[in-house]
Amino acid sequence: MPASPGPSSARVTAKAAGDVLEVALSGTWQITEPRPSWAALLNGSSPARVRLRVAEVEKWDSSLLLFLFEAQQWCRAAGVYCEADALPEKIRTLLVQLAASHETSVPFDRSESFLTTVGVATQDVLVKGRAILHFVGECVLGAQRLARSPRKFRWRDCLGEMQQCGAMALPIVSLVSLLVGVTLAYTGSIVLRQYGGDIYIADLIGLSMVREMGAMMTAVVLAGRTGAAFAATLGNMKANEEIDALETLGIPAVQFLVLPRLIALAVMMPLLALYANALGILGGMLVAYGLLAIPPTAFWVEMLSIVDLTDIATGVIKAGAFGLIVGLSGCLRGLQSDRSAAGVGRATTSAVVTAILLIIIADAIFAVLFNVLGL
Fold first, then answer.
1. Are 269 and 362 in contact (CB under 8 A)?
2. Do the Cβ atoms of 169 and 225 come closer than 8 Å?
3. CA dist., res. 287 & res. 185, Å (int)
4. How far apart are CA 109 and CA 279, in angstroms?
5. Phi-psi sector, 250: left (phi>0), alpha (psi -120 to 50), beta
6. Contact 182/287 with Cβ under 8 angstroms?
7. Pairing of strands 20-29, 81-83
């Protein structure tokens, strides 16, 4: 059923084949001319599936996109599967951008079946996992080249990154670690005072800070501070085509931009974790002295009876792994950023979320591994 009278104007032909409505577009689609209406085309019918295709479109502009967008929105609201694979790739790309720029009141896209949604999500996870493995492999190969020829490495850039992610992060790490120690001491004292075990607050603070909280809180702080900075910096460089220029000159972006940041974080994270341990223990010691009347000397002696070098080593190992995770997440999201200001913002947010998620997963794996090894 044609939707427009003119032979060269926008035309839409709908043909029902069972429960499938095949919609073919042809003619000339211009925003200055009237375009067919999707509601008039349906005429009250309710197909279970809509198949869109472009038959003989001579010339088109945003008028064609608006009609297709109207059709897709109706399919989403009605729970009808909309098949747009026959459309040209350029039109599908523009439709995705148009849908992203328009907020919809539809709470859930019901136009695709459950199996289709699961399949698309699984394929997306596999693609992203392959990209992460490819990036990690490039970093490993870059580290091997660095070990073979360390003179070619830009140590000055690495030292600059060490200053930014190490010395410049001391104020925020100090504040967070001190407050974490204070919070743990106050929380632990509530339980320990009920059983007359006030002195064991030293054991609680010492083990918690050295094995878990020191490395964990430092990693979370650096994920929001340094990981986001890495993603923003590399994202801006990609938007300004600086990374493309490096690749054109034969300079690998991983070797030139990523490795200095990874090495800086891998070196500074254990040092910051040790510093955070000391500040957290100091905060617990202050609370124990002020709230439980435990002298600092007694606190220190009791803590040394339970904390040994094995506990410190486990925290340092975790801190080094967390530093690599933060660096990899920030650099990966920065290199994957879109070439726009909005893309850089999304990459920065994604870097922080990815880093924190991987840190928690890695901490759980370390807990199981250290328990198996008896550490």
1. no
2. yes
3. 6
4. 50
5. left
6. yes
7. unpaired
Tokens of 347: 């990459």
The domain spans of the chain are 11-101, 153-373
Cα–Cα dist 131/50, whole Å: 34
Q: Which tens digits make up the pLDDT trace of 187-230?
A: 888 888 888 778 888 888 988 899 888 899 999 999 988 888 88
The single-letter code of the amino acid at 226 is: T
Cβ neighbours, 10 Å, residue 324: 18
134-187 residue pLDDT tens: 888 888 888 888 888 878 778 888 888 888 888 888 899 999 999 999 998 888
3-state secondary structure of 113: coil
- Pairing outcome for strands 11-17 and 49-60: unpaired
pLDDT in tens, 279-319: 999 999 998 888 888 888 988 988 888 888 888 999 899 99
Instruction: Report residue 119 as tokens.
Output: 């399949």
Query: d(Cα 231, Cα 66) in Å, to the nearest integer?
Result: 35
- CA dist 265 and 270 (Å) reads 9
Dihedral through CA 223, CA 229, CA 230, CA 236, nearest 10? 150
Which CATH code of 3.40.1000.70, 3.30.750.24, 3.40.710.10, 3.40.50.300 fits the domain covering 11-101? Answer: 3.30.750.24
Q: What angle do CA 335, 337, 338 make, to 5 degrees?
A: 135
H-helix or E-strand spanning residue 23: strand 20-29
